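Priority: low. Protein: C-3 sterol dehydrogenase/C-4 decarboxylase-like protein. Input follows.
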Amino acid sequence: MEVHRILVTGGTGFLGSAIVNALVKQEHYDITVLDIKPPSTNTPSRPNVKYVQANVLNLSDTQKIFKQAKPTIVIHTVAVSPIGSDRYSQRRRASVFGLNVNGTRNMLDAAKECGVRAFVYTSSCAVVTDDVDRDYPNMDESTPTGNATLVYGQSKAAAEKLVLQANTPHFLTCALRPSIIFGLGDTQTLPTIHACISKHETPYILGSGLNLFDFVYVTNVADAHLLAVSNLLTTRTAAGEAFFVSNGQPVPFRDFCVAIWAEFGHVPPWEARIPRAVAWALGGVAEWVTWLTGSQATLSRGSVKDACGVRYANLEKARRVLGYEPTVGLAEGVKIACQHYKRQIEQLS
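Result:
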């Protein structure tokens, strides 16, 4: 089988490392990982994986790495996602657009200059769902983008547009839109939900508590990237296209949180349902307190909109074109991820 040279940006990160692990198992990829951070100390040494440190915002350095690695395939995962109160503000707009949009433009320019054949971009469901004033039940690829109200979704939509517009018969591109990713090495979703236990926030139900959300286990997203690469190298039916990727198991946002808390032996001692309008007003008060004290609060008007929204996707296109099927189910993924996170907490204590 032909050995392909593949370059993975962000390959030491949460999703990127899962993609590298999946590529290694295929045994017919010569892999270069480009990341601003070095691999963790427990990363195994592999003969077909080379790590290089670079910033995708530095086009000159990126071009040098491309000339050395000579990849025929690129998987571009590098991005920054504001967390906490920054998610709902404009404070980091310049840096978010800088990395997510300009960094992607640099990667496209270097890839085309180097003669890359296939370019797979890690986009996000946020290109649609960061329009937090609307619900998106059963959204699909025909759902319009460009309506995001939050900086992250706006930046990912702009970068995705660059990638898909760059598609040509000789430079094939596609974009994957994962839903909320969780799993081994998760630094956002699982830690944030787990932290609600120590903050004594688990009893409070915002809104109905029945709003459906999509989540996806990290190795399922990695599998989708490999399927996209394979498609662009063979049938090419994914070229110029975007695909939603999730576990295909929408669940109430509250239920997902309760399942995680249960893995840590926690059950909310009581429950109090807070109507959405009341929660939104309380979020405004919390924002003022945060501003006055300089502290960080979980509750804000933005977080209420997030927690009460309906956000899940139809996977028909990914299944039909890529042959995608999630191999790790939601319940299994929660158990695996929580057990791993529990061990991390124990090591730090």
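The radius of gyration is 20 Å. Residues 46 and 202 are 43 Å apart (CA to CA).
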